[in-house]
Structure formats: structure tokens, C-alpha cells
Amino acid sequence: MNEDLTAVFLACSSSRFFSLLSSIKNEWTLDQQKSLCEATWSHQITRLFPRNVLVSQQSLRRFVDMMENRRIEVDDEIYEALTRLMKQKSSSTDFCTYFVKGKAVTVESRMSIVESGTTGLHCWPAAKQFATFALENSATFEHRSVVELGSGSGFTGIIVTLFCNPRKYVFTDHSKPVLELIERNLQINECNSTSSVTLLDWSAQSLPPEIEETEPEVVVACDVVFDESVIPVLCRLLVSLINRFKCKTFVLSTVRHEATLVAFEEALTDLEMKFKKQEICGSNEPPFFIDSNHKFILHEIIE
């Protein structure tokens, strides 16, 4: 059971964590509390790559309240962990760790949806959903060169790089802070050998040399269709890449506003691009614990 709690806790799924915790019928002896603490708040991965301070404080405080409400003596290690957390300065930095095929994959991100003028520092559910798709369809990426548009924290590309054996993976974004975040996450997961990071302005007249030299066979984009204003320039870039490199192209979007996705499909049609689409629901199961309320659309654009 502690292994399940560790996976959920490190994956930053707070609601799932407390649902699982509440279902445990332990008497919560001091030894059981100590074991829980070592599996979560004091886990060796947590010490190296700590969860967000505020989230950790809240979750530990909630456990202490649960014990006190049941009139159960709280282990000293629990109080020590809470005291240690209370002394730390709060920030928006968070580390998510997922156990994929027996390997721990850790990604730094921001709790804030918008920071430094970009949404790219936050790890969005669509990135996790496409990672699920990639793991289930690894042959699509194996021994192929891949370019990702709007790579965000780099989560999707790290999963593809580590588990799908691409020949080359190019992470792109228009924001330097986002590119610096991706670089850090690549270092954490030791997957730099086949990966590179480059600045990409979707409206630029030419492609960066890194993409030209890579000659992408697959293009990936996650949660980039969130604002109708970006659709024309995005679609022109996609069409340019497809026409030039004959690449497979996948765009996965979280369903927020139907009108935005309709506008995206209309823009592709206007540019004489065909596409297939698939509706997907999130799965609140390992390894990524995606909220089942999230709905996604995966577009595969056909030349």
C-alpha cells in the first residue's frame, strides 16, 4: 500500500492521495505513521526533488488533523517533517515524479498557470495524456526524428525520449525561461544525448537550423490550441512542416471551448489539410493519474 501512496504523492495527485489514505483501515500505530512518512514527505526522491512547499504543508497538516480527530498519538517524525516544511520559504516550484516501467521520471514545473508571461512553465494534463498515447504507440516514434511545438516543461518529450527510442527529439518554445526549464528537466532525467532545445517563433519566415537539420518525421504539439488568435499562425506552420518534410503530425488538445477546436479544424480545412480525430478521456490511474474529468481531442493531420 505504501508503494501506491508513494506513486500518487510524488505524482502530485493530492485528491487521489487523500482518497487512498482515507480508505486505509490502519490503526495508525507510530510505526505505521513512520512508514507512511518515509514513503511520502520524507521519501528519498522528495528530499532530492521536493514537492511544492505549500502543497506539502497542507497535505501533512491534513494528515495530522486526521490523527488528532481520531485521538491517535502522532509520531514525532511526522511533527518533525511538518516543522521542517513550515520553516521553508514558499514558491511556485514543484517537482512531479512518475514511475514508468520501473523508472522514476521527475519533472520540474510551476504551480502557477501563468508565470514569467507564459503558460509553458506549468505541466498541463494534455502533456501527460500524449505521453500515455506515446507509450501505447511507441513504434510511431521509434528511430524517427521528432519535433515538438510548444514543449512546455518538456514532459511529453522526456517520456518519448526515454521510452520510445526516437532517433532525435527537438524541444521548442518561444520563451527562454521555458527552454531553460526544459534543459533542467533533461539533465534531471539524463536524456540529453538524443535531445536538443531550440527557440521557435511560429510567425518567423524561416525555420531554425536545428529543425532544418533534423528533418522531422514526426511533429507533436500538446495543448497549443487554447486561443483562437494563435490558430492561423499555428496552422500555417504545421502546413509548412508537413509539405516540406512529409511528417506525421499529432496535435492533442484539452477540450475547454468547443468553438476554439472548431476554429482549428476550419483553419486546417481552409488550408486543404485533411485530418483524423479521436476523443480521449483522462484516466486517474498510474503512471500519470490524469483527472478523469479531463477530455481531450487528438488530431492526426494528414498531408
From TrEMBL:
Could you tell me the superkingdom of the organism this chain comes from? Eukaryota
Q: What's one Pfam family here?
A: Methyltransf_16
InterPro entries in the record: Methyltransf_16, SAM-dependent_MTases_sf
Protein name per the record: Protein FAM86A-like protein
| Native organism taxonomy | Eukaryota, Metazoa, Ecdysozoa, Arthropoda, Chelicerata
